[in-house]
Amino acid sequence: MVMRWLFGDQLGPHFLDDTDADVLLIESTAVLRRRRFHRQKAHLVLSAMRHRAVELGERCTYLRTDTYGSGLAEIAGPLEVIQPTSWAALHLVDRLADERDVERLPARGFGASRAEFTAWADGRGRKRLLMEDFYRDNRRRIGLLMDGAEPVGGRWNFDAENREPPPKGHRTLGLPEPVWPGEDDIDTAVREDLDRLEGEGVQFLGEDGPRLFAATRAEALAALADFVGHRLPDFGRYEDAIMSEDRWMAHSLLSVPLNLGLLEPVEVARAAERAYHDGTAPLAAVEGFVRQVIGWRDYIWHLYWHLGEDYRTHNQLNQRRSIDDWFAALDPAGTDAACVRSALTSVRETGWTHHIPRLMVLGNYALQHRWKPQQVTDWFHRAFVDGYDWVMVPNVVGMSQHADGGILATKPYTSGGAYINTMSDHCGDCRFDPKKRVGENACPFTGGYWRFLHRHREEFAANPRMGQMVRGLDRLKDLDQVLAEEP
């Protein structure tokens, strides 16, 4: 009898199809010994795996072993393996297939198959891979937010109605807090096991805390319904804003159950689409959310494979410094910058921040401080509850750190304090002044932005999206002092 081996991020029903095969799940402690993951991430993954094993009952063989290899050695007979979500896991399957009967199955959990993406990427006349083009192709093929052959509302992109700064005079959006799952006996056992591993010398990042994110299919569906019913209408408008007293704002938090495989992205996008047709959410908000789910998320997944295994090693900007210890350890006391301190505190306490603190605060800080992109990628992978290799390699190497020289993004995502001041409410509570480049109260992002441009003046002078900013260096009368304050 064939057995289907599922990894810990392949936990939804769409990973079983209609098969009646038995299921194998392996919990490997070596994974936790090798790398320092966030405590709440380790808890979430183990809880989700153990909950799935209980749901599957006698159909599931659940092994707790030191390594995957030692677990697989206990299993005789043929195996089915759905394409895993990292190059390392794929090589593990390759080695396994050299030793025994293994049937490889296509990937699940994305709107487009790898074959469909390849057909799009290799399409006639395509000179550059652009997410916007892929997103439109994906929507057409799936039939999402479409009116015949045209997009609903006559436009593909509603960014002009989205991405407003936070409302002035408010510290929160005033929305209901997301629905949180309750812990059970499985979570208690997971916490006890992690305590034991810590006693044996296994190290974790961040703080322990109540499990905030879905570990079962039922909890994931409840989280989806809660988002669509209570926060989706405000999502697009404020998706790029940061509010110091509103960690969750109108965000879905669904990347976590999506990346565990508990939700399928098309069903998530369909739920948002229904809200538009029912009149409970505006088109701009729905389109912005759908763009994230079957646009950007799908695009990142496919680029991870399309760009090849060596893509992670790119370091086009020659960033050679190691991450500061305080940042690596999620210690907000290491900085006086309110935005960085707030973002690190959120990651420390929950393993999560939304995409703008990740990109324009934490990633921006790393880029300006010349930290090695591979270290930054690994940190994001380990510190975030929704962080996986396929997620973080393109997002960090390509977008956040511009280490690929422009393969993924046409410009580096860096800014001075003015952007953070516009899109957040942090600067009013910060001792640094976003308008100052030099001096004791100078914003580290403002001075860092000009130092970054100076270091890469030649490279970015010819970039159509960067040339004007580079020419601005010549108008800075205090440039020498700015450069002298390099940390």
* Share of helix, binned: 40-55%
Low-confidence stretches: none
How many structural units, i.e. domains?
Answer: 3
Main sheet, how many strands, which sense, barrel? 5 strands, parallel
Which structural class matches the secondary elements?
mainly alpha
Taking strands numbered 1, 2, ... along the chain, how are they ordered across the largest sheet? 3-2-1-4-5
Gap between N and C termini, in Å? 62 Å
Number of helices, counting only DSSP H or I runs of 4 residues or more? 22
Number of strands: 7
CATH architecture of the largest domain, please?
Orthogonal Bundle
Provide a descriptive summary of the structure in words.
The chain is mainly α and 487 residues long. It folds into 3 domains: 3-105, HUPs (Rossmann fold, 3-Layer(aba) Sandwich), CATH 3.40.50.620; 114-181 and 216-306, Serine Threonine Protein Phosphatase 5, Tetratricopeptide repeat (Alpha Horseshoe); 312-484, DNA Cyclobutane Dipyrimidine Photolyase, subunit A, domain 3. Helices cover 46% and strands 6% of the residues. It is built from 22 helices and 7 strands. A 5-stranded parallel beta sheet has the order 3-2-1-4-5, with helices on both faces. It has a two-stranded antiparallel ribbon with strand order 6-7. The protein is globular.
